[in-house]
């Protein structure tokens, strides 16, 4: 495909790009996501993702990683260079990234049986969700189920916070979390402030389903009823609770600690 130069914010391609950046409904309908910056675009490709378009800040056109990226996608991907002033109008970031890339939203594979998983109910803050995904990827829990009430997992803010975690996880959107828990045969753990059992008293060396809920209301009573173990993270300090992303990280890495201890 020929490389284009775009110097007007009224360009139809840029208008479509702006809509995808701002509107979750348009992203879902199109089956696309917008990747901001070299790191996310490269991480997507390395994981086997499919880019459909590259919009490059003309000021960064000679950047070695951009030159390499353009060469690697060849003629499969439409490439456009955007003049700096116009590029800055498209992205909401204070400091414009080197590029924006359009990519196909991955289609999740059938979840593997008897492996640990993460269930997320109505997580609303993009930063929280991205951080949770990053911790899941780092801890080796790759099956993630998100309720319909979660913020768009492929929103630009969640993608930025995830730092590439999306591309190594099996993400199941709009999942029926009650059905997922019912079908799971391992340990089922729900975090709750009034949970009677300490996280550190639980055996996490087998398959585990961790359930985390909305920042304000926590895990719904319906899901709590399906999980025999209501757990809490001991907090000897003065804070009343942990941010959901921090709580998830503590739980995920307690599992890692126990597995490391078991391995000797």
TrEMBL record:
Belongs to the class IV-like SAM-binding methyltransferase superfamily. RNA methyltransferase TrmH family. This is RNA methyltransferase. InterPro entries: Alpha/beta_knot_MTases, MRM3-like_sub_bind, Ribosomal_eL30-like_sf, rRNA_Methyltransferase, SpoU_MeTrfase, tRNA_m1G_MTases_N. Keywords: Methyltransferase, Transferase. One of its GO terms (biological process) is methylation. Residues 117-253 form the tRNA/rRNA methyltransferase SpoU type domain. GO terms for molecular function: methyltransferase activity. Residues 11-100 form the MRM3-like substrate binding domain.
């Amino acid at each position: 495909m020929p490389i284009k130069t775009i110097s007007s914010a009224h360009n139809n391609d840029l208008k479509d790009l702006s809509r995808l950046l701002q509107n979750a409904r348009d992203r879902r309908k199109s089956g696309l996501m917008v990747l901001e910056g070299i790191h996310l675009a490269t991480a997507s490709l390395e994981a086997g993702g499919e880019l459909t378009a590259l919009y490059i800040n003309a000021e960064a056109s000679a950047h070695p990683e951009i030159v390499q990226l353009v060469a690697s996608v060849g003629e499969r991907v439409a490439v456009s260079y955007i003049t700096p002033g116009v590029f800055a109008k498209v992205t909401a970031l204070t400091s414009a990234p080197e590029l924006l890339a359009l990519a196909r939203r991955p289609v999740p594979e059938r979840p593997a049986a008897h492996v640990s998983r993460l269930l997320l109910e109505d997580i609303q803050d993009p930063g929280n969700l991205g951080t949770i995904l990053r911790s899941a990827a780092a801890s080796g829990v790759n099956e993630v189920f998100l309720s319909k009430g979660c913020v768009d997992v492929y929103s630009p803010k969640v993608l930025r916070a995830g730092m590439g975690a999306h591309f190594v996880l099996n993400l199941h959107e709009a999942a029926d979390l009650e059905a997922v828990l019912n079908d799971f045969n391992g340990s089922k753990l729900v975090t709750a402030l009034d949970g009677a059992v300490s996280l550190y008293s639980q055996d996490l060396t087998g398959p585990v389903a961790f359930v985390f809920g909305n920042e304000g209301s926590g895990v719904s009573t319906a899901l709590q009823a399906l999980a025999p173990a209501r757990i809490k993270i001991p907090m000897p300090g003065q804070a009343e609770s942990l941010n959901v992303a921090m709580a998830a990280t503590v739980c995920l890495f307690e599992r890692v600690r126990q597995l490391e201890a078991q391995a000797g």
